[in-house]
Design goal:
The structure is a homodimer. Chain A is built from 14 helices and 15 strands. Chain A is of the alpha/beta class. In chain A, the strands form four sheets. In chain A, strands 4-10-9-8-7-5-6 form a seven-stranded mixed sheet, sandwiched between helices. In chain A, strands 11-12-15-14 form a four-stranded antiparallel sheet. In chain A, strand 7, helix 8 and strand 8 form a beta-alpha-beta unit. In chain A, helix 4 packs parallel to helix 11 and helix 5 packs across helix 6.
C-alpha cells in the first residue's frame, strides 16, 4: 500500500460528500474533536431552540406550553424521529429517562416475557451500566436470576434453554467492535431467548435496522452521535409484538392511558407510550430533538461510508507513522463502529498530552486510547493532525510528565 | 370580618417583604399566573445560564466540561442546595431522574429495609404517579405486597404490624391539604413502618424539616415551587442512617463508587450518591440549579408568611364575592400548602373561561378549580383580579360556551 500524505487526506476532504455538514455544528477553533462518541458536538441550531423554548414558550406561555407547544408529545415525537435512524417504525420508540433506566424497563419486561428462564447473558466487556442495571434488577427480584458474562466469541455457546435474554451493546464502547445484529439475534431467538440491543454507540453513526433484525428490545443514548447535549434523554424501542403484553415496572403517570384523569389505578397507555414514566425534561428533550433533526437531514449510507473511510485512514496512518501502539479495534470495517481504539501501557498520560495539544479523544481504563470519528463534523485533515500529534508525543516522550498523570474525576 | 377592598390588597402589596422577588422572574404581561404549583415561572437568570452552558461550556469545551465546569457534580451539588430548603444536611440529597423514578428507588429501598412486612400504605387521593409506581413495583416483585389506600384521616389506623412503609405527599396536589409531618412520621415509625414523604408541592413553598421530622425517605419535584423548568430533574433524600445499608435497584453507572474504573461489578458509591443512576441531563439540571439558587436567596419564613396571607386572602375574597363555589382546601392555614382549591360541577369550563381572560389556574378532575400561590411572584393585586374575573364569569354565566368544554391533552 502506498504511503499516505497530507495531500491525500486533503483530497479526501475535497471529495467528501458530507463536508458541508460540519457547518451545522459549533466547534472551537484549534481543537480536533475525536470524542463525539462520548459527547456529540453542539449543533448550531440548538442554542436558539433552547432560548425559544425557555423564553418564548416557558416564559411566555407558561403551563399552556404543554399543549400549545407540544411538550406533552416530546417523548413520542422525538422517539418517532429516532425510530427513522434505527430502522424502527412510528409508534415504536419513545425518548425518555436515561439509558440505564431504559435498560431496567427492557430487562424487566424481557424477564417477564420469558418467565421460565433464569439467565441474562451479556459480554464481560459490555458498558458497565448495562451490567450494573442487570445486577440491580436481579438483586431486587431476590437473586433467582443470574447474569452470565462471557467474551464476545463465547456468546452463541453461552445461550441455552435457561437464557431469558441476551443483552449486548451493538458497538463496544472500548474496542469499537460491532456485532452483526441479524445472526446474533437469530441464534439467540433460536434458543428461545430474547434479544436486547444497546445502541448507545450506533444510533446516528452506523446503519441499524431493528425491524429487519427481528430483535425484541433496544435502548440507546441521545448524547453521542445524536448530538443531543450532555446527558440528553435516552430512548427505548420495543418490538410491536411485545408492546402490549404487559406494563413495564416503572409505571409512572405519563405512561398511563389517561394521565390527566388522575385515576388511582395504573392502566397502561397503548403501545410504546407505556414505556414513558415521569414528566419529560423539556429543555434537554428539545436539545435532543435539535440533534436528531440534524441527523435526519443526512444520508445514513453516506455517514457510514465516511465513517469507514475516516477510521480506515486513521488506522493506516497510525501504523504508518507511529510505533508502540496496538490496534484494539477490528481491522475489518464491517466489524467496526465509528471509533478506533489503540492500546499502550501509558495510555492515560499519552491521552492527556494529546488533549493538551488540542486533540481530544479519551482514555478508557486500563490502557486504551479511544478516538471517535463523528462523520458529520470530523475531517480527514483532522485525522492527519491527530496522528501527527500522536507521532510527535510518542517520539519525543513528551507525555511523560507529572501533570499528564493527574487523574480527573471524569476520564 | 370587614369587607376586603381592592385598596386593602394594594396595601398588602405595598407592605410585602418579598415584593422585589417578582423581578427575578420573567412573567408575561396581562397574565395572572396561579399555576406555579404545576409549572413554576421562568427565573430571569435561567436563559443566560442555559446559553452559557450550551454555547460556552458544551460548545466551547465539549467533553472537558464534565470536569472543567463541574457537570459531573451537578446531582450532588444541586442536591446539597435543595437540602437546605427541606431541612436536610449536605450529602443527603441528590437531584436526579424524575419524581416517579425516585419514588421507585425509595419504595424499593423501604421494602428491603422492612423485609418481613407486606403493605405499602398511602392515601387514595395521593398524586397518582405515587400509586402507579407502587403498583408497578408490587407487580415486579410478584404481587406478594399490597398497596393499601385509605382516606387521610384513616392513615394512623391503617398502619399495622404488616406495614412496611407509609408513602404520603406532604401537600395534596388536589386539595392543598398539608400533613403534619412530625406526628404522622412518629405514629408511623411507632408501628415499625418507614415514612416516605413526597415533597412535590412543598419544596420551596412551605418550610420542611426532614431531619427534625425523623422521616426515612423523601422525594420531590424540581419544576413547581423550585422553578427549575418544565420536567426539571427531581430529587431524593435518604436519612443518613439508611443510606449505606444497601444499594437501590436502579444501580446505574453514576451511582458506582468508581464509575470511570469501568468495573464489571456494581459497587455502590458512599452515601446518597448511590441513588444516582444514569448520566444527568445537564441542560435541565442547570436550569433547575438556577431556580434553586433563586429560592436559596429568600427567607423561607417570609415565603410561608406571604403564602398564608395570599391563600387566606383568596379564600376570604372568594367567599365575599362569589357564590356557588365550595372550599375544598383546609381553612386552617397550618393545614394548607400554598394553594387553594374550589369545587364546582362546571369546574372545567369555568377554568377555561378564566384562562381565556388571562387568569391561569388549573382544573383537576372531576370538579376542582385549583389555584397555586407562588409567594415569590404572585401579588395581592393578582388575588383581587383573579377573584374579580371569577365573579364576573360566574355571574354572567360566560363559562357556558362550547369552546370552553373542549378538552386539551393536558388539563
Amino acid at each position: 500500500m502506498s504511503v499516505l500524505s497530507r495531500d491525500d487526506l486533503a483530497k479526501m476532504d475535497a471529495a467528501d460528500e458530507l463536508a458541508a455538514a460540519r457547518d451545522c455544528f459549533v466547534l472551537p477553533d484549534g481543537v480536533i474533536y475525536l470524542d463525539g462518541n462520548s459527547l456529540g458536538a453542539l449543533p448550531r441550531a440548538t442554542p436558539d431552540r433552547l432560548r425559544d423554548v425557555a423564553v418564548g414558550q416557558w416564559g411566555g406561555d407558561l403551563i399552556k406550553s404543554w399543549n400549545a407547544h407540544g411538550w406533552i408529545d416530546l417523548p413520542s415525537r422525538v422517539g418517532d424521529k429516532i425510530a427513522r435512524l434505527i430502522g424502527a417504525g412510528p409508534g415504536e420508540v419513545v425518548a425518555a429517562d436515561s439509558t440505564s433506566v431504559n435498560l431496567f424497563k427492557a430487562l424487566a419486561a424481557a424477564l417477564r416475557l420469558n418467565p421460565g428462564r433464569r439467565v441474562i447473558v451479556s459480554e464481560r466487556e459490555n458498558f458497565p451500566t448495562d451490567l450494573y442495571i442487570a445486577q440491580g434488577l436481579i438483586a431486587l427480584l431476590g437473586r433467582q436470576h443470574e447474569l452470565r458474562l462471557v467474551e464476545a466469541h463465547e456468546i452463541p455457546a453461552a445461550v441455552d434453554h435457561d437464557t431469558a435474554v441476551v443483552m449486548l451493546t451493538h458497538v463496544n464502547y472500548r474496542t469499537g467492535a460491532m456485532h452483526d445484529m441479524v445472526p446474533v439475534t437469530r441464534s439467540t431467538q433460536a434458543k428461545g431467548a430474547l434479544m436486547l440491543w444497546d445502541l448507545a454507540h450506533s444510533a446516528g453513526a452506523v446503519p441499524v435496522d431493528l425491524t429487519g433484525s427481528g430483535a425484541d428490545f433496544a435502548v440507546g443514548c441521545g448524547y453521542k452521535y445524536l448530538n443531543g447535549g450532555p446527558g440528553a434523554p435516552a430512548f427505548i424501542w420495543v418490538a410491536p409484538r411485545h408492546q402490549e403484553k404487559f406494563e413495564q415496572p416503572l409505571s409512572g403517570w405519563l405512561g398511563h392511558v389517561a394521565p390527566f384523569a388522575f385515576e388511582p389505578g395504573y392502566r397502561p397507555a397503548a403501545g410504546i407510550a407505556r414505556y414513558i414514566c415521569g414528566t419529560p425534561p423539556v429543555l434537554s428533550m428539545v436539545a435532543l430533538e435539535a440533534g436528531v433533526d440534524l441527523a435526519l437531514g443526512m444520508d445514513m449510507a453516506a455517514i457510514r461510508r465516511k465513517s469507514v473511510a475516516l477510521t480506515d485512514t486513521f488506522i493506516r496512518l497510525v501504523e504508518q507513522e507511529c510505533a508502540g501502539l496496538a490496534l484494539v479495534s477490528p481491522r475489518e470495517p464491517s466489524r467496526r463502529g465509528s471509533q478506533v481504539c489503540l492500546r499502550h501501557d501509558e495510555a492515560y498520560p499519552i491521552m492527556q498530552a494529546l488533549i493538551a495539544r488540542g486533540v481530544i479523544g479519551d482514555f478508557r481504563a486500563p490502557d486504551i486510547l479511544r478516538f471517535g470519528f463523528a462523520p458529520l463534523y470530523v475531517r480527514f485533515a483532522d485525522v492527519w493532525e491527530a496522528v501527527a500529534s500522536l507521532k510527535e508525543i510518542l517520539a519525543a516522550g513528551s507525555w511523560n510528565r507529572p501533570e499528564f498523570r493527574v487523574r480527573a474525576a471524569v476520564t
